[in-house]
Amino acid sequence: MKPRLPHPRSSAGRRLRPLLLGAALALACAPVAGAAPAPTDAPVRIDPAHWPQPAWPLALDPAMEKRIDALMAAMTLEEKVGQVVQGDIASLTPEDVRRYRLGSILAGGGSDPGGRYNASPAEWLALADAFWEASMDTRGGGKAIPIIWGIDAMHGQSNVVGATLFPHNIGLGAARNPELLREIARITAAETRTTGMEWTFAPTVAVPRDDRWGRAYEGYSEDPALVASYAGVFVEGLQGKAGAPDFLDDHHVMTTVKHFLGDGGTDNGKDQGDTTVDEAQLRDIHGAGYAPAIAAGAQSVMASFNSFHGEKMHGHKPLLTDVLKQRMQFGGFVVGDWNGHGQIKGCSNTDCAQTYIAGLDMAMAPDSWKGMYESTLAHAKDGTLPMARLDDAVRRILRVKFRMGLFEKPKPSARALGGRFELLGAPQHRAVARQAVRESLVLLKNQGGLLPLAPKQRVLVAGDGADNMAKQAGGWTLTWQGDGTKRADFPNADTLWDGLKAQVEAAGGKAELAVDGRYKARPDVAVVVFGEEPYAEFQGDLPDLMFKGGRSGDLELIRKLKADGIPVVAVFLSGRPLWVNREINAADAFVAAWLPGSEGGGVADVLLRRPDGSVQHDFRGKLSFSWPRRADQFANNVGQKDYDPQFAYGYGLTYADNGDLPALSEEPGIDPAASRTSAWFDRGVATTGLTLRLVGADGEASDIVHPNAATADGSVVMTAVNTDVQEGARQFAFQGAGRVELRANTPLDLVRETNGDVLAIASVRVEALPAGARVDYLASCGDGCRGEVAIGDALAKLPQGQWARLGVPLKCLRGAGADTARLDMPFALRGSAGLRLSLAKVSIGTDYEQKVECPAP
């Protein structure tokens, strides 16, 4: 499918965390009567009696139950099994739904109508109609049971071109405005309904405790009390209020509260990792959002990828069944995450009765649905999956469908909001998003009261985030990772440059955009916008909190402008707090803007004065995650003795405050050279932790440090070539069967990336490719362990002499024999005589122009 702590501003140690939230946190973390936290080295036993017992707000309706009884009595075993398996639209067709009577589909990150991320809203709706019609087709005797379509509407209906894009959850947490959250959820539901879906995989109520986690921005806060204050109102915004006439009507969507449980507390912030806290911490910190969500009538809960003390949550019966369904009285159904059942010991993506027995009701089997259907049917027939458990799962799913009135509804396009595409990015919706941007901004520094800026002056807007919607919106925006998009994909959006330019020029000032800071006319002030590149899930996991490993180039840009005597306002776009002390020191003012989404004008509203000199909007945002003092300060330990962040939870200046900030320490606490990214080769050199090696036809190898080199036998000759920068790539000319290798100093574990359909992406330029030339991608994992995939045919499809991104799925390497848990050579090219190939970058990702197809097993 598809997560820090209040710092003293001065030596006096002034704490700015609101007392009310502090008290709420203490209350949230207080043990339930009778709960005794076990020592961390003791076996962890789950006692349901220690868990909260929220009241489920929806009493059973006897008439509805009678209808369910009658339907289930008429259903075949095959139809029942179809209800508990969910496939992805990229791997099934409406005919598959009709034939196998599947009860649900999803559009995962990167799954779109026609395989195009920028498919039109009309294409989404037409596909929704097609799947609905297939589910209601009774030819052959099948029962008409309406399908439900789930989608990750993560920050608005962010899969669809033109939709309103709200700030990601980390920014909404800084806004501290639950009623604003309710309105955001209501708008998201309406825009989702226009394109035919009735189910969103939201809200995320994770409580991220390690900022290295690549999903940190999906969490509202490190504080469980703040998360809990948002969970129920967001559910009500999406679904309507339980018991109200509009509950789950055509203007609302059903919710999925996720990910149950402990996803934000994995060891070292590792996505899909192991959470080894005690039961009280699991309950009071990571479980804080579930009780209010259940009390609000959330219709589904998603099981998490992570383990709890080594046991995968998709197979954890004490938590899924004994705690969630029984003790917490959850009356909806439990859905899995993307092939999460396949990670249970003894299971595979296509075979896992254990997950249903543990309490899962619907297995998310995106590309494995057919095998999962067939094995589950077999298990139901032979008794491995008890009929009572299967019937309970089916009943829970059908009950939700009846609650939504789907059996009486027409096809999606004929429902109340179907096809009302004018609601996508509607002005009134964008106004709410703009308010959310204003309220989410956090001011960390305002030396000499530089802000707010007078608009009637010459303003330079610089930095690679200034006019960059993808960077501004982050992951889960049109594509899974948020990459590979273009400005035209956002017709109802303003970048930060758009917003600043409009207001400056309207006031009679002059605005100039120069991403690299090379202005044409000397400005009075510069606004530098920079930050993280888009990412989602495990691709965003970090080894430490040093921004881009300390090699971003943004610091140099700020310093250059300062050296010219120009005041600088730094606007930082990120999905988490990062160590940027040097950038904070260099700038006159520093704003944490998080990932604001489509409304860049909201930033301008706060940075700029009105033309008459008065303040338009003051800063209201307060840190919902503590800001690190050092790059090795990843874990959030608010309330503990060693709590010592740079800026504490709750910190945030207003224009009434003294914004002067003493110089911060520029010692990161780590070796910057040890910081690494997902890139393995960039601008002609191997990245930190890897070594570039040339191997001749004679087998002799040599490590390469210079831009021009050759093997001793002359079979591979490397020369430096220019890209957008001087000598930004390397060209390899093969005179024989030589190799170009990237060797890892420490073996790389890419299991999560492999399971997530991530690819090795090579930015290549084919200079010469003789007919019949042999080109192979190789990966090795120790003695006798390797995989190789032929890529010559894929290279031949690329235009010669032009740069292009070639993608090789990591699962191809695994299928060819490489153990992706221990790659000591993640990338190598073996060529034959006459091949000439230039290479600019090698990294892991999902954005490619030509994909290598895995060979048949």
Summarize the structure.
Strands 18, 19, 22, 23, 24, 26, 29, 31 and 32 form a nine-stranded mixed β-sheet that branches. Strands 12-17-16-15-13-14 form a six-stranded mixed β-sheet, sandwiched between helices.
Walkthrough of the structure:
The chain has 857 residues and is of the alpha/beta class. It is built from 23 helices and 32 strands. A hairpin with a 5-residue loop joins strand 27 (776-780) and strand 28.
Summarize the SSE layout with pairings.
Layout: H1 19-28, H2 62-74, H3 77-83, E1 85-88, H4 94-100, E2 104-107, H5 121-136, E3 148-151, H6 169-175, H7 178-194, E4 199-200, H8 224-239, E5 256-260, E6 274-275, H9 279-286, H10 290-295, E7 300-303, E8 307-308, E9 311-312, H11 317-327, E10 333-335, H12 353-358, E11 363-364, H13 369-382, H14 387-403, H15 427-440, E12 442-446, E13 458-462, H16 469-473, H17 496-506, E14 510-513, E15 525-531, H18 554-563, E16 568-573, H19 581-586, E17 589-594, H20 601-607, E18 679-682, E19 685-686, E20 690-695, E21 701-703, E22 709-710, E23 716-721, E24 729-734, E25 739-744, H21 751-755, E26 759-768, E27 776-780, E28 786-790, H22 792-796, E29 803-809, H23 810-815, E30 825-830, E31 836-845, E32 850-851
Parallel strand pairs: 1-2, 1-11, 2-3, 3-4, 5-7, 6-8, 7-10, 13-14, 13-15, 15-16, 16-17, 29-32
Antiparallel strand pairs: 8-9, 12-17, 18-19, 18-31, 20-21, 20-25, 22-23, 23-24, 24-31, 25-30, 26-29, 26-31, 27-28, 27-30
